[in-house]
Specification:
about 260 residues; alpha/beta; 2 domains; six-stranded mixed β-sheet; five-stranded antiparallel β-sheet; 10 helices; binds adenosine-5'-triphosphate; nucleotide-binding; BCA_ABC_TP_C
């Protein structure tokens, strides 16, 4: 039995009169790919913001597995959470557009490492030794995702699909234990979405990590998720395998029915 890597208990957040996330208790296991779906405004991105530390909950708890036990991370900043192995991508692409693809990956690798930043300022011998190693690691990562040929291109010059791909590579560069992907297929054409589906499957096989995916593209999310949570009005409406969710009458009524 694999261990629980992420767990929430009765997690809620209110903005004025709106309870955007309402007593949500979910969990994700080691190496599991969990889909998070629900109609617009259901609270998916707000839940991600609670899990990654952008928002503090009004009630409830977020815990992650660290040092052999589940620890409560409610009070930890996004930076501290990233040091514990949490990485995310955003709905809106957030790359350094005027830096190269390789530089974008290198920046992501260092962002997590304060002692590295000090070495870089002081230009210590270990800085130069590590620098070469890091470049090799970044190139190896780009190679896995078929991007070495654009390593020296400015991120701004990449196609939309490639920019989204680079966002994922940057998140992976921090070697996360948990990766949050917020609508990675948003704005993609069908070919790019197909490539992204393969990419997510590849990440799951090649990297050992838990992935939590928000996605409106049903073909994608049903193809890659092992288990799903459905949110509606901030609450968990259902959880189950893709087949179970597709056949759940409450889900069909609340959400999938909207499309049919
Ligand atoms: N910072 C905020 N202040 C006030 N209300 C907010 C804030 N963030 C989210 N909300 C509200 O919380 C609810 C949930 O929004 P959220 O963006 O989490 O939904 P979502 O499921 O991610 O939607 P979508 O699929 O459209 O991205 C909405 O009613 C939204 O207006």
């Amino acid at each position: 039995m694999t261990r629980t890597i992420l767990k929430t208990r009765d997690l809620s957040v209110r903005f004025g009169g709106v309870t955007a996330v309402d007593q949500v208790s979910i969990e994700a296991r080691e190496n599991e790919l969990v889909g998070l779906i629900g109609p617009n405004g259901a609270g998916k991105t707000t839940l991600f913001n609670l899990l990654t530390g952008v928002y503090k909950p009004t009630n409830g708890e977020v815990s992650i597995f660290s040092n052999d036990k589940l620890i409560n991370i409610n009070q930890l900043s996004p930076y501290k959470r990233s040091q514990l192995g949490i990485a995310r991508t955003f709905q809106n692409i957030r790359l350094f557009k005027s830096r190269t693809v390789l530089e974008n990956v290198l920046i992501a690798m260092t962002a997590k490492n304060k002692s590295y930043s000090l070495q870089a300022i002081l230009r210590t011998p270990s800085f130069y030794k590590n620098e070469e190693k890091r470049q090799q690691q970044a190139m190896a990562l780009l190679d896995i995702f078929g991007m070495t040929n654009v390593a020296d291109e400015l991120a701004d010059n990449l196609s939309y699909g490639q920019q989204r791909r680079l966002e994922i590579v940057r998140a992976l560069a921090t070697k996360p234990a948990i990766l949050f992907l917020d609508e990675p297929a948003a704005g993609m054409n069908p070919q790019e979405t197909k490539e992204l589906t393969d990419l997510i499957k590849q990440i799951q096989v090649q990297f050992k990590m838990t992935i939590i995916l928000i996605e409106h593209d049903m073909n994608l999310v049903m193809a890659v998720s092992e288990r799903l949570y459905v949110l509606e009005y901030g609450k968990v409406l259902a959880t189950g395998t893709p087949i179970e969710i597709q056949n759940n009458p409450a889900v069909i009524k609340a959400y999938l029915g909207e499309e049919g």
